Amino acid sequence: MKRMILTGLAAIVAGALAHGGTTLAQQHGGHAGHGAAATKQDSPATAAFRAANMTMHKAMDIVFSGDVDADFVRGMIPHHEGAVAMARVMLAHGKDPALKALATGIIADQEKEIAQMRAWLKANGK
After folding, report:
1. Which positions of the chain have pLDDT values less than 50?
2. DSSP code for 119
3. What is the four-CA torsion angle of 97, 57, 16, 26, rounded to 10 degrees?
4. How far apart are the two ends of the chain, measured CA to CA in Å?
5. Which of 2, 12, 23, 39 lies 20 to 30 Å from 32, alpha-carbon distance?
6. What are the backbone dihedrals phi and psi of residue 41, each rounded to the nearest 5 degrees, phi first?
7. What is the pLDDT of residue 36?
8. What is the pLDDT, as a whole number, of residue 41?
């Protein structure tokens, strides 16, 4: 499952580099545009993706404490929750059976990791 995700990410990066050799951050200002406002033309899926991204990015904007371990976990929990939300949009609106299977696996994996990170915060008094 993780190999499929990494392969997909590598393909995206390779495609971005093939288009002028600029980085994704240069092309899109880092994560700029992920939370762009909905338009009248947005499909229900696009509106759901936009909402998931806006929620994730807002929740990831944490106050950094200087405790690398805690900051990592506090930032990763909403990141993983965003992945779960996006996978749920895929399940609700997508058509490709292989991508639906991937989305189902992402939900299971990310929810397990979210629980692990929350348990770590609790066990470490964070």
Report:
1. 3-33
2. H
3. 170
4. 31
5. 2
6. -80, -5
7. 58
8. 87
- In order of 38, 94, 115, the CA distances from 104 in angstroms are 26, 12, 17
And the tokens for 51? 């909402």
Q: Give the ranges where the chain is alpha helix by DSSP (H).
A: 2-18, 24-28, 44-60, 68-93, 97-123
The Cβ-side half-sphere exposure at 46, using a 13 Å CA radius, reads 9
- Placement of tokens 């996978």 in the chain: 87
Q: Which of 82, 76, 103, 100 is nearest to 34 (CA)?
A: 82
Supply the angle between the helices 44-60 and 68-93 in degrees, to the nearest 10.
170
Q: Which residue is associated with the tokens 């939300």?
A: 85
Cβ(38)–Cβ(46) below 8 Å: yes
